[in-house]
Design goal:
By secondary structure, the protein is an alpha/beta fold. Helices cover 45% and strands 12% of the residues. The chain contains 14 helices and nine strands. The structure holds flavin mononucleotide (FMN).
């Protein structure tokens, strides 16, 4: 059993195609995170009643600990979508001001909100009127490495009524390159009166401990939680496997995830979401790259399950 406890909230990051009900079910099976951000939900599509919106907005199995993240470029759409989600049980509504994916940036959404303090401030004013729950923003440093601008930007968000900011301290252009500047999380925390969460490149339980001991109010974990869905349990008294779990446990976890995916996601999403999950989870195996390639050739979840079981049979050491 892990000896340490962390009193600060541990949060699952919003990740497209990953932070959905099946992953939350898996994390909860081991012992649970404190808050779960959903993958980004497109405000326009949600309002138009797209065919898959029920899956994006499924807050199970613990809706009281789910924060719905919205993405969009149009203030009135974001405000209306936030109002819609705020009517459900939730732990908050989050606005995505950090996504640097080309399609999102081209649309004027995600990190593009960070280009103008006034535009972002007016958005928050509009959304704040619609949201009774906790309103948060997840962002990057911005277009340039300019901590003074970042502080001015966040002070404006705070003055318009944002309750929590999560910083992934990289610039828009850096995507996942370069190390995240965690010292900016501390800078922001000093400059603001609201809580500031830190996120970025946490790769082990020890690193969670180290980051939580530093100047931040909460720790957000993304890819590590996909590779090791038991990671939160290590700090919350759950049944956490060791850092290097036995292959039988890895197999069991992978098969459980596939079952959850089949139960909680529409067939149209099964393959892409399973591949996304295994892109990280397979790093637990010695021949993870080979296994990812094999899984990539499968055309349904049953085929993927068979590939995993065969791999573990053929590689008893993992
Ligand atoms: C596959 C993938 C999808 C992501 N989708 C989102 C998203 O929908 N909204 C968001 O704010 N950030 C998104 N992110 C960024 C993560 O929330 C997080 O900031 C980033 O992965 C760094 O944290 P990590 O090093 O713990 O993974 C995504 C990241 C990945 C890897």
């Amino acid at each position: 059993m892990f000896e340490y406890t962390i009193s600060k909230p541990l949060m699952l990051a919003p990740m497209a195609e990953l932070s959905h009900r099946a992953l939350r079910e898996l994390v909860e099976f081991f012992g649970g995170g404190d808050l779960y951000f959903t993958e980004m939900i497109n405000a326009g599509t949600l309002l138009a009643g797209g065919p898959f919106e029920a899956f994006y907005t499924d807050g199970g199995p613990c809706p009281d600990r789910v924060v719905y993240q919205l993405v969009g470029a149009r203030p009135e759409q974001l405000a209306a979508a936030a109002a819609l989600l705020d009517r459900r049980e939730n732990a908050g509504i989050d606005l995505n001001m950090g996504c640097a994916a080309p399609a999102i940036v081209r649309a004027g959404a995600g990190v593009r909100w960070m280009d103008s303090i006034d535009r972002a401030g007016e958005l928050i004013r509009l959304v704040r009127r619609e949201v009774k729950s906790r309103l948060s923003v997840k962002l990057r440093i911005g277009a340039r490495d300019d901590p003074e601008y970042l502080i001015r930007f966040c002070r404006r968000l705070e003055s318009e009524g944002v309750d929590l900011i999560t910083l992934h301290p990289r610039t828009a252009r850096e995507k996942f390159r370069r190390r995240p500047r965690w010292e900016y999380v501390g800078l922001l925390r000093e400059a603001l009166g609201i809580p500031v969460a830190g996120n970025g490149d946490i790769r082990s339980a020890e690193e969670i401990l180290r980051r939580a001991a530093g100047p931040c109010d909460a720790v957000m974990i993304g890819r590590l939680a996909v590779r090791c869905p038991w990671i939160f349990a290590r700090f919350r008294g759950g049944e956490a496997p060791a850092e290097k779990p036995r292959p039988a446990i890895l197999e069991e976890t992978a098969l459980r995830f596939l079952e959850l995916l089949a139960r909680y996601q529409p067939p149209e999403f099964h393959l892409s979401r399973a591949r996304r999950f295994f892109a990280y989870f397979c790093d637990n195996f010695r021949f993870g790259t080979y296994l990812k390639t094999r899984l990539g050739r499968e055309r349904d979840l049953a085929g993927m399950a068979a590939v995993i079981s065969a791999y573990v049979r053929e590689n008893p050491d993992g």
